[in-house]
């Protein structure tokens, strides 16, 4: 999870919502990383989890990631939860609950729903405080920047 936080930091510095993800294989070897890239790639599907899943599938030459574990700093959204189930990941470890769009345990529970054809082991709350603080600080900075921009626009008008 520490590596996922480092990746999230880099994403935030690039102007993305700071979410990072890593995938390790059954032996604990890091095989793929992903960070949010929606803004840079102009792609609504470029969430950290999707980027990491695609990379892991290419490296393993398989879309089935049974023995892999995905670590991600924020609880996955419905799209990512669906991709996690579809990729047959063995385990999901996430940092902080997403009270708006969390689709693993908080708002929805896609892995345990009748629509899921794969059972996923889930561990939430890992490095929760660090993940939460990182996201909150990024959003606070973003809001402050927006206020400053809005103030400048008002003065210029």
UniProtKB/TrEMBL annotation:
Q: Which reaction does it catalyse?
A: adenosine(34) in tRNA + H2O + H(+) = inosine(34) in tRNA + NH4(+)
- Is tRNA processing included in the keywords of this UniProt record? yes
Q: Which Pfam families match?
A: MafB19-deam
Q: Which InterPro entries match?
A: APOBEC/CMP_deaminase_Zn-bd, CMP_dCMP_dom, Cytidine_deaminase-like, MafB19-deam, tRNA_aden_deaminase
* EC number in record: 3.5.4.33
* Keywords (A to Z) from UniProt: Hydrolase, Metal-binding, tRNA processing, Zinc
Note whether Hydrolase occurs among the keywords. Answer: yes
Q: What PROSITE patterns does the record point to?
A: CYT_DCMP_DEAMINASES_1, CYT_DCMP_DEAMINASES_2
Residue numbers binding Zn(2+): 47, 77, 80
Where does the source fall among the domains of life? Bacteria
**All residue ranges annotated as the CMP/dCMP-type deaminase domain in the record:** 1-107
Q: Where is the active site?
A: 49 (proton donor)
UniProt GO BP? tRNA wobble adenosine to inosine editing
Cofactor(s), by name: Zn(2+)
Q: What does this protein do?
A: Catalyzes the deamination of adenosine to inosine at the wobble position 34 of tRNA(Arg2).
Stored NCBIfam families? PRK10860.1
Q: Which family does the record assign? A: Belongs to the cytidine and deoxycytidylate deaminase family. ADAT2 subfamily.
User: Which HAMAP family does the protein's record reference?
Assistant: tRNA_aden_deaminase (MF_00972)
User: What does the subunit comment say?
Assistant: Homodimer.
Name of the molecule in the record: tRNA-specific adenosine deaminase
């Amino acid at each position: 999870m520490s590596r996922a936080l480092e990746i999230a930091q880099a994403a935030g510095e690039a102007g993305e919502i700071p979410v990072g993800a890593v995938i390790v294989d059954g032996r604990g070897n890091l095989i793929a990383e992903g960070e949010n890239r929606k803004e840079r790639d102009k792609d609504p599907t470029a969430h950290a989890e999707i980027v990491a899943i695609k990379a892991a599938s290419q490296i393993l030459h398989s879309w089935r990631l049974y023995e892999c574990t995905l670590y991600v700093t924020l609880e996955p959204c419905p799209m990512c939860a669906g991709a996690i189930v579809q990729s047959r990941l063995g385990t999901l470890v996430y940092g902080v609950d997403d009270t708006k769009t969390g689709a693993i345990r908080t708002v929805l529970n896609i892995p345990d729903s009748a629509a899921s054809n794969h059972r996923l082991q889930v561990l939430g709350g890992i490095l929760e405080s660090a993940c939460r603080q990182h996201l909150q600080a990024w959003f606070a900075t973003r809001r402050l920047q927006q206020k400053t921009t809005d103030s400048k626009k008002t003065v210029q008008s």
